[in-house]
Amino acid sequence: MIRGMPDLLKRLAMIAGAENVIPGDSPAAADFAHDETLNGPARQPVAIIKPETPDQVTELMALATAAGVPVTARGSGSGLSGAAVPPAGGIVVSFERMNKIVEIDETNHVAVVQPGVTLQELEQKTAEHGLVYPVYPGEMSATIGGNIATNAGGMQAVRYGVTRENVLGLQVVLATGEIIRSGGAIVKSSTGYDLTQLIIGSEGTLALVTEATLRLRTRLPVRATLLAPFNDLDTVTRAVPEILAAGLQPTMLEYVDQLSMAAIIFNTGLELGIPDNVRDAAQAFLIVRLEQRDAERCDADAIDAGLLLERLGAIDVYVLPGEAANSLIQARENAFWSAKKAGAADIIDIVVPRGAMPKFMAAARAIGSEHESIVVGSGHAGDGNVHLAVFQTDEKVLSHVMNELFAAGKRLGGVVSAEHGVGRTKKPYYLELEDPVKIALMRRIKEAFDPAGILNPGAVFDVAESPSPLAAEAAL
Ligand SMILES: Cc1cc2nc3c(=O)[nH]c(=O)nc-3n(C[C@H](O)[C@H](O)[C@H](O)COP(=O)(O)OP(=O)(O)OC[C@H]3O[C@@H](n4cnc5c(N)ncnc54)[C@H](O)[C@@H]3O)c2cc1C
Asked: How far apart are CA 85 and CA 461, in angstroms?
Protein backbone atom coordinates (compact mmCIF):
# COMPACT_ATOMS: atom_id res chain seq x y z
CA MET A 1 0.00 0.00 0.00
CA ILE A 2 1.41 3.43 -0.90
CA ARG A 3 2.22 6.01 1.78
CA GLY A 4 -0.69 8.27 2.68
CA MET A 5 -3.28 5.67 1.63
CA PRO A 6 -4.69 4.76 5.08
CA ASP A 7 -5.27 8.45 5.74
CA LEU A 8 -6.94 8.95 2.34
CA LEU A 9 -9.22 5.91 2.84
CA LYS A 10 -10.17 7.19 6.29
CA ARG A 11 -11.08 10.60 4.89
CA LEU A 12 -13.09 9.08 2.06
CA ALA A 13 -14.92 6.90 4.60
CA MET A 14 -15.78 10.02 6.60
CA ILE A 15 -17.44 11.43 3.47
CA ALA A 16 -19.49 8.46 2.21
CA GLY A 17 -19.26 5.83 4.97
CA ALA A 18 -16.67 3.05 5.14
CA GLU A 19 -19.02 0.60 3.40
CA ASN A 20 -19.04 2.87 0.35
CA VAL A 21 -15.28 3.05 -0.09
CA ILE A 22 -13.34 0.26 -1.81
CA PRO A 23 -9.56 0.19 -1.40
CA GLY A 24 -7.78 -0.08 -4.73
CA ASP A 25 -5.96 -3.27 -3.74
CA SER A 26 -9.17 -5.19 -2.96
CA PRO A 27 -10.49 -7.71 -5.56
CA ALA A 28 -13.71 -5.67 -5.81
CA ALA A 29 -11.68 -2.83 -7.35
CA ALA A 30 -10.78 -4.83 -10.47
CA ASP A 31 -14.02 -3.96 -12.27
CA PHE A 32 -13.24 -0.25 -11.98
CA ALA A 33 -9.89 -0.58 -13.77
CA HIS A 34 -11.27 -0.72 -17.31
CA ASP A 35 -14.22 0.08 -19.55
CA GLU A 36 -15.40 -1.85 -22.65
CA THR A 37 -12.80 -0.42 -25.04
CA LEU A 38 -11.32 -3.13 -27.28
CA ASN A 39 -7.75 -3.75 -26.13
CA GLY A 40 -8.10 -0.61 -24.04
CA PRO A 41 -6.08 0.58 -21.06
CA ALA A 42 -6.58 -0.88 -17.57
CA ARG A 43 -5.45 0.65 -14.31
CA GLN A 44 -6.66 -0.01 -10.81
CA PRO A 45 -7.62 3.18 -8.92
CA VAL A 46 -6.14 3.78 -5.46
CA ALA A 47 -9.69 3.85 -4.10
CA ILE A 48 -13.32 3.91 -5.23
CA ILE A 49 -15.88 6.06 -3.48
CA LYS A 50 -19.65 5.78 -3.96
CA PRO A 51 -21.27 9.02 -2.82
CA GLU A 52 -25.02 9.29 -2.30
CA THR A 53 -25.56 13.07 -2.34
CA PRO A 54 -24.22 16.13 -4.16
CA ASP A 55 -22.91 17.35 -0.78
CA GLN A 56 -20.74 14.27 -0.47
CA VAL A 57 -19.40 14.91 -4.00
CA THR A 58 -18.66 18.49 -2.93
CA GLU A 59 -16.69 17.27 0.09
CA LEU A 60 -14.83 14.75 -2.06
CA MET A 61 -13.79 17.37 -4.59
CA ALA A 62 -12.65 19.83 -1.96
CA LEU A 63 -10.51 17.07 -0.45
CA ALA A 64 -9.14 15.94 -3.83
CA THR A 65 -8.23 19.47 -4.90
CA ALA A 66 -6.52 20.20 -1.58
CA ALA A 67 -4.58 16.91 -1.76
CA GLY A 68 -3.95 17.10 -5.52
CA VAL A 69 -5.44 13.63 -6.09
CA PRO A 70 -6.90 12.88 -9.56
CA VAL A 71 -10.60 11.99 -9.66
CA THR A 72 -12.24 10.01 -12.48
CA ALA A 73 -16.03 9.71 -12.64
CA ARG A 74 -17.60 6.40 -13.54
CA GLY A 75 -21.08 5.47 -14.68
CA SER A 76 -21.53 1.88 -15.88
CA GLY A 77 -18.10 1.54 -17.48
CA SER A 78 -19.62 0.79 -20.90
CA GLY A 79 -17.50 3.49 -22.55
CA LEU A 80 -15.47 2.70 -25.67
CA SER A 81 -12.52 5.10 -25.34
CA GLY A 82 -10.89 4.36 -21.98
CA ALA A 83 -12.22 7.64 -20.55
CA ALA A 84 -13.40 6.06 -17.28
CA VAL A 85 -10.00 4.48 -16.62
CA PRO A 86 -8.23 6.44 -13.87
CA PRO A 87 -4.73 7.84 -14.22
CA ALA A 88 -1.99 6.54 -11.88
CA GLY A 89 -2.75 7.39 -8.26
CA GLY A 90 -6.34 8.38 -9.03
CA ILE A 91 -9.61 7.88 -7.18
CA VAL A 92 -12.71 6.66 -9.02
CA VAL A 93 -16.03 8.20 -8.03
CA SER A 94 -18.80 5.77 -8.90
CA PHE A 95 -22.25 7.25 -9.28
CA GLU A 96 -24.10 3.96 -8.85
CA ARG A 97 -25.79 5.11 -5.60
CA MET A 98 -26.92 8.43 -7.09
CA ASN A 99 -29.52 6.64 -9.18
CA LYS A 100 -32.86 8.29 -8.47
CA ILE A 101 -35.35 9.54 -11.00
CA VAL A 102 -36.26 12.70 -9.10
CA GLU A 103 -39.20 13.80 -11.24
CA ILE A 104 -41.08 13.15 -14.47
CA ASP A 105 -42.71 16.48 -15.29
CA GLU A 106 -45.53 15.82 -17.77
CA THR A 107 -46.36 19.52 -18.23
CA ASN A 108 -42.90 20.64 -19.23
CA HIS A 109 -41.90 17.30 -20.77
CA VAL A 110 -38.76 16.94 -18.69
CA ALA A 111 -37.19 14.34 -16.43
CA VAL A 112 -34.96 15.34 -13.54
CA VAL A 113 -32.53 12.51 -12.80
CA GLN A 114 -29.41 11.70 -10.86
CA PRO A 115 -26.36 10.71 -12.93
CA GLY A 116 -26.35 7.01 -12.00
CA VAL A 117 -29.80 6.37 -13.54
CA THR A 118 -29.42 3.92 -16.42
CA LEU A 119 -31.05 4.33 -19.82
CA GLN A 120 -33.01 1.15 -19.16
CA GLU A 121 -34.46 2.54 -15.90
CA LEU A 122 -35.38 5.82 -17.57
CA GLU A 123 -36.96 4.00 -20.51
CA GLN A 124 -39.23 2.02 -18.17
CA LYS A 125 -40.23 5.04 -16.11
CA THR A 126 -40.93 7.37 -19.03
CA ALA A 127 -43.03 4.66 -20.74
CA GLU A 128 -45.40 4.73 -17.74
CA HIS A 129 -46.06 8.40 -18.58
CA GLY A 130 -46.42 7.96 -22.36
CA LEU A 131 -43.15 9.85 -22.80
CA VAL A 132 -39.67 8.88 -24.01
CA TYR A 133 -36.08 10.04 -23.55
CA PRO A 134 -35.11 9.42 -27.15
CA VAL A 135 -31.31 9.14 -26.91
CA TYR A 136 -30.76 5.47 -27.71
CA PRO A 137 -27.15 4.31 -27.74
CA GLY A 138 -26.84 0.55 -28.06
CA GLU A 139 -25.99 -0.09 -24.44
CA MET A 140 -29.00 0.38 -22.17
CA SER A 141 -26.94 -0.28 -19.02
CA ALA A 142 -25.11 3.02 -19.64
CA THR A 143 -25.87 5.85 -17.22
CA ILE A 144 -27.14 9.35 -17.89
CA GLY A 145 -23.91 10.74 -16.34
CA GLY A 146 -21.82 8.70 -18.77
CA ASN A 147 -24.08 9.68 -21.69
CA ILE A 148 -23.72 13.36 -20.84
CA ALA A 149 -19.94 13.14 -20.42
CA THR A 150 -19.55 11.43 -23.81
CA ASN A 151 -22.36 13.25 -25.63
CA ALA A 152 -23.75 9.83 -26.48
CA GLY A 153 -25.64 9.42 -29.75
CA GLY A 154 -26.98 6.12 -30.97
CA MET A 155 -29.64 4.95 -33.37
CA GLN A 156 -32.35 7.57 -32.85
CA ALA A 157 -30.08 10.60 -33.23
CA VAL A 158 -31.13 10.83 -36.88
CA ARG A 159 -34.54 12.05 -35.69
CA TYR A 160 -34.06 13.36 -32.16
CA GLY A 161 -30.43 14.47 -32.04
CA VAL A 162 -27.72 13.35 -29.64
CA THR A 163 -27.44 13.92 -25.87
CA ARG A 164 -26.49 17.56 -26.50
CA GLU A 165 -29.93 18.25 -28.00
CA ASN A 166 -31.74 16.50 -25.17
CA VAL A 167 -30.18 17.88 -21.99
CA LEU A 168 -31.72 21.14 -20.81
CA GLY A 169 -29.92 21.68 -17.54
CA LEU A 170 -27.28 20.37 -15.19
CA GLN A 171 -26.27 20.50 -11.58
CA VAL A 172 -22.51 19.94 -11.37
CA VAL A 173 -19.80 19.94 -8.73
CA LEU A 174 -16.66 21.78 -9.77
CA ALA A 175 -13.15 20.61 -8.95
CA THR A 176 -13.02 23.16 -6.13
CA GLY A 177 -16.08 21.61 -4.50
CA GLU A 178 -18.39 24.47 -5.52
CA ILE A 179 -21.78 23.40 -6.84
CA ILE A 180 -23.57 25.17 -9.70
CA ARG A 181 -26.73 24.82 -11.77
CA SER A 182 -26.97 25.67 -15.45
CA GLY A 183 -30.11 25.71 -17.61
CA GLY A 184 -33.24 23.97 -16.28
CA ALA A 185 -36.73 22.99 -17.39
CA ILE A 186 -36.61 25.69 -20.05
CA VAL A 187 -36.12 25.32 -23.79
CA LYS A 188 -34.60 28.71 -24.50
CA SER A 189 -31.92 30.87 -22.96
CA SER A 190 -29.90 33.79 -24.21
CA THR A 191 -28.35 34.49 -20.86
CA GLY A 192 -24.60 34.23 -20.55
CA TYR A 193 -22.31 31.44 -21.70
CA ASP A 194 -23.96 28.04 -22.13
CA LEU A 195 -22.11 26.02 -19.49
CA THR A 196 -24.46 23.05 -19.95
CA GLN A 197 -23.23 22.62 -23.52
CA LEU A 198 -19.59 23.09 -22.51
CA ILE A 199 -19.81 20.33 -19.91
CA ILE A 200 -21.68 17.89 -22.20
CA GLY A 201 -19.04 15.81 -23.99
CA SER A 202 -16.20 16.93 -21.71
CA GLU A 203 -15.57 13.31 -20.57
CA GLY A 204 -15.43 14.13 -16.87
CA THR A 205 -12.57 16.63 -17.30
CA LEU A 206 -14.44 19.84 -16.37
CA ALA A 207 -17.00 18.96 -13.67
CA LEU A 208 -18.92 16.10 -12.10
CA VAL A 209 -22.59 15.89 -13.07
CA THR A 210 -24.79 15.35 -10.00
CA GLU A 211 -28.22 15.98 -11.58
CA ALA A 212 -29.60 16.47 -15.07
CA THR A 213 -32.80 17.92 -16.50
CA LEU A 214 -33.62 15.97 -19.65
CA ARG A 215 -35.96 16.79 -22.49
CA LEU A 216 -38.69 14.19 -23.05
CA ARG A 217 -40.88 13.62 -26.13
CA THR A 218 -44.26 12.07 -26.69
CA ARG A 219 -43.87 8.32 -27.12
CA LEU A 220 -45.15 7.38 -30.58
CA PRO A 221 -47.01 4.07 -30.23
CA VAL A 222 -46.89 2.62 -33.77
CA ARG A 223 -43.76 1.40 -35.53
CA ALA A 224 -42.74 -0.10 -38.85
CA THR A 225 -39.29 -1.54 -39.49
CA LEU A 226 -38.06 -2.01 -43.07
CA LEU A 227 -35.08 -4.09 -44.09
CA ALA A 228 -33.62 -3.33 -47.51
CA PRO A 229 -30.78 -5.47 -48.92
CA PHE A 230 -28.60 -3.82 -51.58
CA ASN A 231 -26.09 -5.13 -54.12
CA ASP A 232 -23.38 -2.77 -52.91
CA LEU A 233 -22.55 -0.44 -50.06
CA ASP A 234 -22.11 2.64 -52.25
CA THR A 235 -25.73 2.47 -53.35
CA VAL A 236 -26.75 2.37 -49.68
CA THR A 237 -24.70 5.39 -48.69
CA ARG A 238 -25.94 7.32 -51.74
CA ALA A 239 -29.55 6.45 -50.85
CA VAL A 240 -29.34 7.87 -47.31
CA PRO A 241 -29.51 11.62 -48.10
CA GLU A 242 -32.47 10.99 -50.43
CA ILE A 243 -34.42 9.12 -47.78
CA LEU A 244 -33.91 11.99 -45.36
CA ALA A 245 -34.77 14.56 -48.01
CA ALA A 246 -38.11 12.78 -48.58
CA GLY A 247 -39.30 14.01 -45.18
CA LEU A 248 -40.11 10.58 -43.77
CA GLN A 249 -38.29 11.42 -40.52
CA PRO A 250 -37.12 7.89 -39.72
CA THR A 251 -36.27 7.25 -36.06
CA MET A 252 -33.49 4.90 -37.18
CA LEU A 253 -31.53 4.73 -40.42
CA GLU A 254 -28.80 2.16 -39.94
CA TYR A 255 -26.51 0.38 -42.37
CA VAL A 256 -24.80 -2.98 -41.90
CA ASP A 257 -22.28 -4.33 -44.40
CA GLN A 258 -22.32 -7.94 -45.54
CA LEU A 259 -19.48 -9.26 -43.36
CA SER A 260 -20.83 -7.54 -40.26
CA MET A 261 -24.31 -8.94 -40.92
CA ALA A 262 -22.79 -12.42 -41.35
CA ALA A 263 -20.99 -12.04 -37.99
CA ILE A 264 -24.19 -10.81 -36.31
CA ILE A 265 -26.19 -13.76 -37.72
CA PHE A 266 -23.45 -16.20 -36.70
CA ASN A 267 -23.26 -14.82 -33.14
CA THR A 268 -26.90 -14.22 -32.38
CA GLY A 269 -28.63 -16.85 -34.52
CA LEU A 270 -30.73 -14.00 -35.93
CA GLU A 271 -33.26 -15.02 -38.60
CA LEU A 272 -33.56 -12.14 -41.05
CA GLY A 273 -36.79 -13.54 -42.42
CA ILE A 274 -35.79 -12.90 -46.05
CA PRO A 275 -35.04 -15.47 -48.79
CA ASP A 276 -31.57 -17.04 -48.50
CA ASN A 277 -30.62 -16.10 -52.08
CA VAL A 278 -31.41 -12.42 -51.43
CA ARG A 279 -29.52 -12.46 -48.13
CA ASP A 280 -26.50 -14.09 -49.75
CA ALA A 281 -26.46 -11.72 -52.73
CA ALA A 282 -26.67 -8.58 -50.60
CA GLN A 283 -23.45 -6.68 -49.97
CA ALA A 284 -25.09 -4.27 -47.55
CA PHE A 285 -28.35 -3.72 -45.70
CA LEU A 286 -30.28 -0.63 -44.72
CA ILE A 287 -32.61 -0.70 -41.72
CA VAL A 288 -35.28 1.98 -41.62
CA ARG A 289 -37.53 2.40 -38.60
CA LEU A 290 -40.57 4.66 -38.79
CA GLU A 291 -42.77 5.77 -35.88
CA GLN A 292 -46.15 7.43 -35.94
CA ARG A 293 -49.14 8.37 -33.79
CA ASP A 294 -51.44 5.84 -35.46
CA ALA A 295 -51.35 2.78 -37.71
CA GLU A 296 -52.81 4.54 -40.74
CA ARG A 297 -50.08 7.19 -40.86
CA CYS A 298 -47.40 4.59 -40.15
CA ASP A 299 -48.61 2.28 -42.94
CA ALA A 300 -48.66 5.18 -45.39
CA ASP A 301 -45.07 6.11 -44.45
CA ALA A 302 -43.95 2.47 -44.74
CA ILE A 303 -45.41 2.23 -48.27
CA ASP A 304 -43.71 5.48 -49.31
CA ALA A 305 -40.40 4.37 -47.78
CA GLY A 306 -40.62 0.98 -49.50
CA LEU A 307 -41.25 2.51 -52.92
CA LEU A 308 -38.44 5.00 -52.39
CA LEU A 309 -35.97 2.30 -51.30
CA GLU A 310 -36.79 0.25 -54.41
CA ARG A 311 -36.28 3.31 -56.60
CA LEU A 312 -32.95 3.93 -54.88
CA GLY A 313 -31.67 0.47 -55.79
CA ALA A 314 -32.72 -1.96 -53.05
CA ILE A 315 -32.87 -5.59 -54.24
CA ASP A 316 -36.18 -5.84 -52.40
CA VAL A 317 -37.82 -4.32 -49.32
CA TYR A 318 -39.19 -6.31 -46.36
CA VAL A 319 -41.45 -4.93 -43.65
CA LEU A 320 -40.50 -6.99 -40.62
CA PRO A 321 -43.11 -8.17 -38.12
CA GLY A 322 -42.72 -6.75 -34.56
CA GLU A 323 -40.73 -9.59 -33.01
CA ALA A 324 -38.34 -9.98 -35.96
CA ALA A 325 -37.89 -6.21 -36.14
CA ASN A 326 -36.95 -5.99 -32.47
CA SER A 327 -34.51 -8.90 -32.79
CA LEU A 328 -32.85 -7.18 -35.76
CA ILE A 329 -32.47 -3.88 -33.89
CA GLN A 330 -31.13 -5.71 -30.86
CA ALA A 331 -28.69 -7.65 -33.01
CA ARG A 332 -27.54 -4.41 -34.65
CA GLU A 333 -27.02 -2.96 -31.14
CA ASN A 334 -24.82 -5.96 -30.40
CA ALA A 335 -22.65 -5.51 -33.51
CA PHE A 336 -19.85 -4.39 -31.18
CA TRP A 337 -19.85 -7.73 -29.32
CA SER A 338 -19.89 -9.64 -32.63
CA ALA A 339 -16.85 -7.67 -33.83
CA LYS A 340 -15.11 -8.26 -30.51
CA LYS A 341 -15.82 -11.99 -30.65
CA ALA A 342 -14.52 -12.15 -34.22
CA GLY A 343 -11.20 -10.68 -33.02
CA ALA A 344 -11.40 -7.03 -34.11
CA ALA A 345 -8.33 -5.09 -32.95
CA ASP A 346 -10.10 -1.74 -32.71
CA ILE A 347 -13.34 0.03 -33.51
CA ILE A 348 -13.52 3.51 -34.97
CA ASP A 349 -16.46 5.82 -34.56
CA ILE A 350 -15.79 8.43 -37.20
CA VAL A 351 -18.38 10.87 -38.52
CA VAL A 352 -18.35 12.63 -41.89
CA PRO A 353 -21.02 14.76 -43.55
CA ARG A 354 -23.58 12.17 -44.68
CA GLY A 355 -23.13 13.20 -48.32
CA ALA A 356 -19.43 12.29 -48.02
CA MET A 357 -20.09 8.72 -46.87
CA PRO A 358 -19.58 7.09 -50.31
CA LYS A 359 -16.16 8.78 -50.60
CA PHE A 360 -15.22 7.86 -47.05
CA MET A 361 -16.24 4.23 -47.49
CA ALA A 362 -14.20 4.03 -50.71
CA ALA A 363 -11.19 5.50 -48.88
CA ALA A 364 -11.65 3.02 -46.01
CA ARG A 365 -11.71 0.10 -48.47
CA ALA A 366 -8.53 1.35 -50.16
CA ILE A 367 -6.72 1.84 -46.82
CA GLY A 368 -7.76 -1.65 -45.68
CA SER A 369 -6.55 -3.35 -48.83
CA GLU A 370 -3.28 -1.34 -48.99
CA HIS A 371 -2.40 -2.49 -45.46
CA GLU A 372 -3.84 -6.00 -45.86
CA SER A 373 -6.31 -5.33 -43.07
CA ILE A 374 -10.00 -6.12 -42.87
CA VAL A 375 -12.09 -2.99 -42.35
CA VAL A 376 -15.82 -3.70 -42.01
CA GLY A 377 -18.73 -2.27 -40.15
CA SER A 378 -22.14 -0.85 -39.56
CA GLY A 379 -23.34 2.49 -38.36
CA HIS A 380 -25.74 5.31 -37.97
CA ALA A 381 -25.94 6.03 -41.70
CA GLY A 382 -28.39 8.90 -41.30
CA ASP A 383 -25.80 10.78 -39.26
CA GLY A 384 -22.78 9.93 -41.47
CA ASN A 385 -21.49 8.03 -38.43
CA VAL A 386 -19.52 4.94 -39.32
CA HIS A 387 -18.50 2.26 -36.81
CA LEU A 388 -15.68 0.37 -38.47
CA ALA A 389 -14.09 -2.73 -36.96
CA VAL A 390 -10.44 -3.04 -37.92
CA PHE A 391 -8.87 -6.51 -38.02
CA GLN A 392 -5.08 -6.37 -37.95
CA THR A 393 -2.77 -8.26 -35.59
CA ASP A 394 0.39 -6.18 -36.19
CA GLU A 395 0.20 -3.16 -33.87
CA LYS A 396 2.34 -0.92 -36.09
CA VAL A 397 0.24 -1.62 -39.17
CA LEU A 398 -2.92 -1.16 -37.09
CA SER A 399 -1.75 2.26 -36.01
CA HIS A 400 -1.10 3.24 -39.68
CA VAL A 401 -4.55 2.03 -40.69
CA MET A 402 -6.20 3.96 -37.85
CA ASN A 403 -4.25 7.13 -38.61
CA GLU A 404 -5.13 6.96 -42.28
CA LEU A 405 -8.81 6.29 -41.62
CA PHE A 406 -9.06 9.28 -39.30
CA ALA A 407 -7.10 11.49 -41.70
CA ALA A 408 -9.40 10.45 -44.58
CA GLY A 409 -12.44 11.35 -42.46
CA LYS A 410 -10.93 14.69 -41.50
CA ARG A 411 -10.19 15.56 -45.15
CA LEU A 412 -13.88 15.02 -45.90
CA GLY A 413 -14.96 17.37 -43.12
CA GLY A 414 -15.37 14.78 -40.37
CA VAL A 415 -14.04 14.27 -36.85
CA VAL A 416 -12.36 11.42 -34.97
CA SER A 417 -15.28 10.47 -32.75
CA ALA A 418 -18.99 11.02 -33.26
CA GLU A 419 -20.23 9.64 -29.95
CA HIS A 420 -17.77 7.36 -28.13
CA GLY A 421 -15.43 10.18 -27.13
CA VAL A 422 -11.69 10.73 -27.39
CA GLY A 423 -10.87 9.40 -23.93
CA ARG A 424 -7.46 7.86 -23.68
CA THR A 425 -7.43 5.52 -26.68
CA LYS A 426 -8.29 7.99 -29.45
CA LYS A 427 -6.23 10.82 -27.92
CA PRO A 428 -3.08 10.31 -30.05
CA TYR A 429 -5.10 10.37 -33.29
CA TYR A 430 -7.15 13.34 -32.15
CA LEU A 431 -4.09 15.37 -31.12
CA GLU A 432 -2.37 14.52 -34.41
CA LEU A 433 -5.26 15.97 -36.44
CA GLU A 434 -6.67 18.75 -34.25
CA ASP A 435 -5.72 22.43 -34.55
CA PRO A 436 -3.15 23.12 -31.74
CA VAL A 437 -4.69 26.56 -31.18
CA LYS A 438 -7.97 24.84 -30.24
CA ILE A 439 -6.21 22.39 -27.92
CA ALA A 440 -4.46 25.29 -26.20
CA LEU A 441 -7.81 27.07 -25.75
CA MET A 442 -9.33 23.88 -24.31
CA ARG A 443 -6.43 23.64 -21.85
CA ARG A 444 -7.17 27.20 -20.68
CA ILE A 445 -10.86 26.36 -20.29
CA LYS A 446 -9.90 23.30 -18.26
CA GLU A 447 -7.63 25.41 -16.06
CA ALA A 448 -10.53 27.78 -15.33
CA PHE A 449 -12.79 24.88 -14.28
CA ASP A 450 -10.14 22.75 -12.65
CA PRO A 451 -7.11 24.79 -11.56
CA ALA A 452 -5.33 21.84 -9.90
CA GLY A 453 -5.82 19.63 -12.99
CA ILE A 454 -7.35 16.77 -11.01
CA LEU A 455 -10.50 15.99 -13.02
CA ASN A 456 -9.81 12.95 -15.20
CA PRO A 457 -6.36 14.17 -16.30
CA GLY A 458 -5.05 12.44 -19.41
CA ALA A 459 -8.48 12.03 -21.00
CA VAL A 460 -9.05 13.96 -24.28
CA PHE A 461 -5.66 15.76 -24.00
CA ASP A 462 -2.83 15.90 -21.50
CA VAL A 463 -2.99 18.64 -18.90
CA ALA A 464 0.20 20.41 -17.91
CA GLU A 465 1.93 18.16 -15.41
CA SER A 466 0.63 18.60 -11.87
CA PRO A 467 1.21 15.16 -10.38
CA SER A 468 -0.49 14.27 -7.15
CA PRO A 469 1.70 13.12 -4.29
CA LEU A 470 -0.05 9.75 -4.57
CA ALA A 471 0.53 9.61 -8.33
CA ALA A 472 4.19 10.47 -7.84
CA GLU A 473 4.55 7.75 -5.20
CA ALA A 474 2.68 5.22 -7.31
CA ALA A 475 5.02 5.92 -10.20
CA LEU A 476 8.10 5.11 -8.07
C1 LIG B 1 -22.34 -2.78 -27.00
C2 LIG B 1 -22.13 -1.30 -26.89
C3 LIG B 1 -22.79 -0.48 -27.78
C4 LIG B 1 -22.63 0.91 -27.68
N5 LIG B 1 -23.29 1.72 -28.57
C6 LIG B 1 -23.18 3.05 -28.47
C7 LIG B 1 -23.87 3.91 -29.38
O8 LIG B 1 -24.58 3.46 -30.28
N9 LIG B 1 -23.74 5.24 -29.21
C10 LIG B 1 -22.98 5.78 -28.21
O11 LIG B 1 -22.92 6.99 -28.09
N12 LIG B 1 -22.28 5.00 -27.37
C13 LIG B 1 -22.35 3.66 -27.47
N14 LIG B 1 -21.65 2.86 -26.61
C15 LIG B 1 -20.70 3.46 -25.64
C16 LIG B 1 -21.20 3.73 -24.22
O17 LIG B 1 -22.36 3.00 -23.90
C18 LIG B 1 -21.44 5.23 -24.06
O19 LIG B 1 -20.20 5.91 -24.21
C20 LIG B 1 -22.04 5.64 -22.72
O21 LIG B 1 -22.36 7.01 -22.79
C22 LIG B 1 -21.14 5.40 -21.53
O23 LIG B 1 -21.92 5.49 -20.34
P24 LIG B 1 -21.39 4.83 -18.98
O25 LIG B 1 -22.37 5.11 -17.92
O26 LIG B 1 -21.05 3.41 -19.18
O27 LIG B 1 -20.08 5.72 -18.72
P28 LIG B 1 -18.61 5.28 -18.35
O29 LIG B 1 -18.03 4.39 -19.37
O30 LIG B 1 -18.57 4.82 -16.95
O31 LIG B 1 -17.89 6.70 -18.44
C32 LIG B 1 -17.79 7.39 -19.66
C33 LIG B 1 -17.28 8.82 -19.40
O34 LIG B 1 -18.24 9.52 -18.62
C35 LIG B 1 -17.62 10.11 -17.47
N36 LIG B 1 -18.65 10.19 -16.45
C37 LIG B 1 -19.47 9.20 -16.00
N38 LIG B 1 -20.33 9.69 -15.08
C39 LIG B 1 -20.06 11.02 -14.95
C40 LIG B 1 -20.59 12.07 -14.15
N41 LIG B 1 -21.59 11.86 -13.29
N42 LIG B 1 -20.03 13.30 -14.25
C43 LIG B 1 -19.01 13.54 -15.12
N44 LIG B 1 -18.47 12.58 -15.89
C45 LIG B 1 -19.00 11.34 -15.83
C46 LIG B 1 -16.45 9.17 -17.19
O47 LIG B 1 -15.44 9.81 -16.43
C48 LIG B 1 -15.99 8.88 -18.60
O49 LIG B 1 -15.23 9.97 -19.06
C50 LIG B 1 -21.79 1.47 -26.67
C51 LIG B 1 -21.12 0.62 -25.78
C52 LIG B 1 -21.28 -0.75 -25.87
C53 LIG B 1 -20.56 -1.63 -24.88
From this structure: 14
